[in-house]
Amino acid sequence: MKKLILLLSIVFLFSCEQTQKGALEGSWLRKGTINYKEGRPLDTIEFKGVFFEVYTKGSYSLLMNEIKIDSVTGEDVDKGISEAGFYTIDKNKLKKKVYYGTGWLGDGIGEWSGPDKDYLEVEFEVDYEKNHLSKLMPLDSLGNGFAEYYTRVD
Predict the structure, then answer these.
(1) pTM of the predicted model over 0.90
(2) Among 21, 71, 118, 119, which is least packed by CB within 10 angstroms?
(3) Among the four given CATH numbers 2.40.128.280, 3.90.640.10, 3.30.390.50, 3.40.50.1260, the one describing domain 24-152
C-alpha cells in the first residue's frame, strides 16, 4: 500500500509540473528587450510598437509592427510582419516551425528553410510563468545578444 501511495504521489508530482508548462498557452504582449553582454543581462529597452503572440495547443501566431521613425521624413518605415506555425516546448526550450509569414519573413521562409522543408525552424531558451515570458535568442560566441520579454494579456 505504501508503494502504491508513493507511486501515485510521484505521478501526481510530474503531472503537476506538466500542467504548469501549459501556462505558455494564451496571449502575450512584448514589453521590451534585454540586452546581453558576455552572457549577462546588461540593460533593458522598452519595445515600441506592437508585438503580440498567441499560443494554443501546439500552434501559435504572431503580429508585429515595430515603430521605426525615419529621421528625415518623420514617418514610420516599419511595415510590420505576421507569422504562424507550430511549436513544441521541452523544459526551457521553445522550438518553432514557422510555416507562414508576411513581408520580408514570407520571403525568408523559402530562402532560409532549405530545399527539403517548407518551414523555418527557430529555437529559444525560455523562462515563463503565469504572467511573464522571456525568450532568449541564441547568443554569439562572445555571449552577446538579446532576449525578448512579454507580459500576459488574457
Answers:
(1) no
(2) 71
(3) 2.40.128.280
